[in-house]
Amino acid sequence: MLNPDMRHHHHLALLSLLGALGTLPASPARAQSASDIFVSYPESGHRVAHSHVILQGSVTPGATLTVSGQAVPVGPDGLFMAWWPLRPGTNDLRLVSRSGSKTATRTLRVVRTVPRVLPASPTAIDRETLTPREAVEFWDLAGDSPAERTVKVGFVGSPGGRATFRINGGAAVPMREGTAGAYSGTFVLPVQALLKDAPVTVSLTGRDGRTVTATAAGRISGATGETRLGVQNPGSVHGLALNEATTLLTDLAGAPLLYPRDDMAFTLVGRQGRDYRVRLAPGVPALVTQTQVQVSPGPLAVGAGGAIQLEALRSPVGEGASVPALFSPPPLQISPAVPVPAVMTAPVMTRAPRPDLTLRLPLGGARLPFTVTQDSPQRLVLTLYGPLATPLTAPQETDPLLGSVEVRPLALEVTRVVVNLTTPQLWGFHAGYDGNDLQLTVRRPPALNPARPLEGRTITLDPGHGGTQGGGAGSLRTPEKGLVLPITLRAAELLRAQGATVHLTRTADVTVSLYDRGLTAEATGSDLLVSVHANALPDGRDPRGVRGPEVYFTHPQAQPLAASLLAALRAGLPEIGPGAGLKPGANLALTRPSAQISVLVELAYLTDAGNLRALHNPEARERFAQAIAGGVTAFYTGQARR
């Protein structure tokens, strides 16, 4: 099941069997009474906005099942999965199971919600749908683009009418009707507008000739020259590159845009409900949650600029000297110094190889906003927002890992730094502030032994969910958390047997916070973070035929590992189906971390009967574990041959 950053669970015409129920014998480990009905999904009282829901669970092996008088196919292990139709409103499903002379019953309530549709007459406005719902403030209209000065107004009302809105009693602005009864309109505030809590009033004239009005809860304020400074709360960003959804800037539509670092500073130019509106650069807006930043008067600091430097490290050679490593691998040992005379004039210094490539962008202490992305296997792009006293220039130093650095202005106060690397496989990257500089760090490829490519490597395996986080519903009475744990533990054994150090985020049914999983990989200096899950479909998705493995990743550096894992799962478990395959660009908490290669593996679907049984079958579980270990091994073997 996908992690809590993004969640899955369930559309068509009549009751259908979800996949072949097969002839698997009942599991002796799951003894049940003859009066037993277990529904894993949905829970009673569940509300769904779709015409069907997956009804799944199990009864006593050998028992029959009817739902509201209609027979439902049941497997010999008691498993049932049905694509059940729902009428609008409340559906009280009566489940009856019979085994010999014994009968069990239960009632399951599922509510199908439907959008409220107002009649054409009498003319009416649904006031709960009226936007803006919260205050909208513009603090620097003169610096905003027309798009940033746009006020959006909307509501649902009687269809087929003529609608307008007014701001502060001004001229009427016409609105358009989209889907029946949904009206929307926009207005670009003039640069010189001075408003304080101005009301937004809408009017609708319906087919019956009647006109009704309503006022939005959100008021509009406008000013110029009242920008403020926002600084990301100290200590709110964890790790090097977890890229947490809890600390995030979005674009105006709500899509992820920037994952800040501690002390990152922003120019605040307005407020939209619970968010501040940020001006990253002229014409580049963003939203940040108010509680995420500290606000003070004053402008954004100007960055120093100048030549980008490659960080060179000189370490004193002596007792216990070592090279610091940002990714926390085992310390790089430096040979002890040769014997020294009784009188020393200065410490002996020697050049030592650094375990990572570091570029330092001189900002003079300014904490300008930035993003870092990998847009191709051998290229990183750092986009820096904000003013610079001197343009950035490419470094003069060279490094075997560095092909070239391109620096170019994209727009006013937007600088792009493109880092072209010589290695076809990246092993991790991150960026953050260090002293007066912005530091971009690229992990060097490890030296691999072709005969034993896993020897000495460090890997983090994450059995998904655990403790209070059950994950996907288990129709055979074991939830996702209990299915993936033994498979992951066995995969760890197999990898350790090949010389790898394997860290597990959990080894028992305990609760582990979402971001602590990524922190484990960072803190241990792991090459890889592999999160193991079992999949399920969301409400509204017809699950028939949806089965097999999927591997999710965010950054291109993870694609080779993802492909190796997928190939191993397909080869080792052909009976579960090929699945939908690779899922690049995933926006998931366990694939966004970039300090190491991070993937999330969905082994199989809990909403497919055959897939679910495979996850319960000891022999198939062994093959799942072998596939995980085999996919990781194939990845390292391929890298060792480069």
What do these coordinates show?
The chain is mainly beta and 642 residues long. 11% of the residues lie in helices and 38% in strands. Strands 10, 15, 18, 19, 20, 21, 22, 23, 24 and 25 form a ten-stranded mixed β-sheet that branches. A seven-stranded antiparallel β-sheet has the order 9-11-14-13-12-16-17, with no helix packed on it. Strand 12 (162-167) and strand 13 (173-177) form a beta hairpin. The radius of gyration is 30 Å and the shape is flat.
Largest sheet: 10 strands, mixed
**Inertia-based shape:** flat
Helical proportion? 10-25%
Instruction: Let me know the average pLDDT.
Output: 89
Whole-angstrom Rg: 30 Å
Number of strands: 45
Quaternary state of this entry equals single chain
Structural class by secondary-structure content: mainly beta
Percent of residues in β-strands: 35-45%
Total helices: the number is 5
- How far apart the termini lie comes to 35 Å
- Extract low-pLDDT stretches: 6-32, 313-354
